Amino acid sequence: MVKNLPLLIAMFTIGCGVTLISSRTALPQVMEIVLLSIGAILKVWSIIGLILHLGIIQWNKDFND
Hints:
This protein is mostly helical. Helix content is 86%, strand content 0%.
């Protein structure tokens, strides 16, 4: 499970960066909507993945003990 952790953290960081860039710069409305959508999708997927990752780690600890 540790193999996915850097990917999930990178997805969250990129999602936050894209959201920050799209909210701070003057962009055409279509581009702003696209970037906000991409940022939101990346953040949501990474948070769900991190929650599942932590749940599986906890489940494995309980199962092994």
